[in-house]
Amino acid sequence: MGAVYIDRILNTECPEYGSANRVAAAAHIEDTRPHEILVILDSDTLFLREPSELILAPEVDVAVRPVDLKGMSTGGPADPSDLYWQDLCRCCGVDYDQVPWTKSSVDRRRIKANYNGGLVVVRGGLGILRRWAHF
Length: 135
What we know:
This protein is α+β, with helices and mostly antiparallel strands. The protein contains three helices and five strands, in the order αββαβββα.
């Protein structure tokens, strides 16, 4: 398979948040191993056939999917989580009104875009994963 095992602690900034491990690891791979496309998956992911949908079209640099369940996503101004999302957008310099609407993938609720970190596809050489890790 050509797998390389890296025995190194990469997540030194946020070890209490397990999901940050994938972000740190992905940024490390982006910086140290040239690739055309890198796919970040949850560790419990299983493919039963060739995942050809993960091959990015030439004009696409990143592909993600919405969260499974609405959870803490916002459904709009009447949602109890909405002020959190407005504050988060303000903190990040993002225009809340420009955040697109989507649907959560399992419960099919209308939400402001909130993506699942367990399936991320990124074109190599653009520094996208490094920016994610340093954000």
